[in-house]
Amino acid sequence: MNWSRTAIIVAVFALLTKCPANAVCIYKGKMYAKTTLSEEFSDSKWVVRVEVSAADNHWSDYIGADDPWTIYHLRVLTSFKGEPPATIELFTYRDSGGFYLDKGAKANIGGEYLLFLNPASQDKDVPAAAHSATEINYSCGQSRAWADVNHAARKELAKMSQWSR
Prior knowledge:
Elements (H helix, E strand, L loop, with lengths): L2 H16 L7 E2 L2 E2 L5 H7 L2 E13 L10 E13 L5 E7 L8 E2 L2 E2 L4 E8 L14 E3 L7 E2 L5 H14 L1
Antiparallel strand pairs: 1-2, 3-4, 3-8, 4-5, 6-7, 8-9, 8-10
């Protein structure tokens, strides 16, 4: 390989590593805020451990030109806060601020998650199918795969759960 070709490849790689792959996240007006379990517990109507049952992707029936979205169908395994129904739906746009319950390119059917949820926005731009759904409190916050919830966080959730009852 000649030097100019190597230099181009190195330059392209350097530029790509500088582009953030993270979601665009704003929490109470602050970009990329670091939240705590207790903050999000307080801000959320429901805090639940769920299992993904199914997902409905809407790639072609856009709201606007660039607004694909997904509704995940979830089975509630444990409620740490609130009294959600036994099954709930999670709405998310397929954009940089979305929160996905996917494994690779497909929904993580059977996957378990800790979610901090609120009722979906009733904004006129939100699809009608999402009006009875929920949304993640903060996409870059404490919602995550259940396997990633460590022992200390599980203990804290149990304690907060007792306080909220």
